[in-house]
Design brief:
With about 120 residues, this protein is mainly beta. Helices cover about 0% and strands about 60% of the residues.
Amino acid sequence: VQLVESGGGLVQAGGSLRLSCAASGSIFRINDMGWYRQAPGKQRELAANITSGGSTMYADSVKGRFTISRDNNRNTVYLQMDSLKPEDTAVFYCKARIFSDYFNFNDYWGQGTQVTVSS
């Protein structure tokens, strides 16, 4: 199983970016999918999560600015980031809980994509 992220880059404050993360490989089903971020010198933190049924949750710092969504047919999760701030600068990682059959699962991480917001 592999998670491949795309969509990071450099943007000015107030701008927008859309991240994508596609899962591939031996997949029976995918439960939660989420986006985490790690700023320089800080611990990795959860930014947003979405269940297989579409329920979402967000860190307080991104509420109202970020929107997580998923396409279950494409095994892909997205993160639309609007009104970006310099403090959003971080490496963003996607994570997915992927079942290989009815009972067995692993948590997989993407390779990370850099998001840099200039002031």
